[in-house]
Design brief:
This protein is an alpha+beta fold. It has two domains: 16-93, Homing Intron 3 (I-Ppo) Encoded Endonuclease, Chain A; 96-173, no CATH class. It has helices at residues 24-27, 56-65, 95-106, 144-152, 157-166, and strands spanning 16-18, 30-35, 41-47, 50-55, 74-77, 90-93, 109-114, 121-125, 168-173. The strands form three sheets. A four-stranded antiparallel beta sheet has the order 1-2-3-4. A three-stranded antiparallel beta sheet has the order 8-7-9. It is globular and about 55 Å long.
Length: 176
């Protein structure tokens, strides 16, 4: 795998055209490497009037494997440096593995939940759940799609409380 950049250095806000490789070259005409405010590389993909962005690390892993990653595959930076996109520093983790790794790094608690819409089991850091005061009445779903479906429902207060009290499966305390 050889990603050729058309510039020897990258600057914030500068778009650099790259030659896309398989699998992206099969579906997209052009790709532009962009550096965001956090100094992370983002790939802007274009085909006629269609546009999409993906992280550069996700692009690199897809090119390395010669296939697109599925939505359950998360690209992790082994050394925790999100700007180090060398393929040897990248690994694929599940959402659960990625959340546990993040929680170990930060000394956090991970909560295992069940989605009230699709009933998938998923994981979130405790601070992003209804177990903290700021999100006490917020029902947490596994995805934006399920959250949107939840908003369409007209639950009574009693029904919301039942959901809030039943979607936490287990709390995992993460230590090194």
């Amino acid at each position: 795998m050889m990603v050729k950049l058309q510039s020897s250095f990258l600057l914030l806000g500068v778009n650099i055209k790259i030659n896309l490789e398989i699998p992206y070259s099969l579906d997209w005409d052009t790709g532009y490497l962009i550096i965001n405010k956090e100094n992370r590389k983002i790939l802007l993909l274009k085909k006629s009037n269609k546009r999409m962005t993906t992280s550069f690390s996700r692009y690199l892993m897809s090119v390395h494997l010669k296939r697109y990653l599925n939505k359950h595959e998360h690209v992790d930076h082994i050394d925790n440096d999100k700007t180090n996109d060398v393929i040897e520093n990248l690994q694929i983790l599940t959402q659960k593995e990625n959340n546990i790794k993040e929680s170990k790094k930060r000394g956090k608690t991970v909560v295992e939940l069940i989605c009230p819409i699709c009933e998938n089991i998923f994981f979130r850091r405790k601070g992003l759940t209804n177990l903290v005061a700021s999100k006490k009445s917020q029902i947490i779903c596994c995805s934006k799609i399920c959250s949107f479906e939840l908003k369409k429902q007209n639950y009574t207060i009693e029904e919301r409380n039942i959901i809030l009290n039943s979607n936490v499966i287990k709390i995992h305390f993460i230590t090194e």
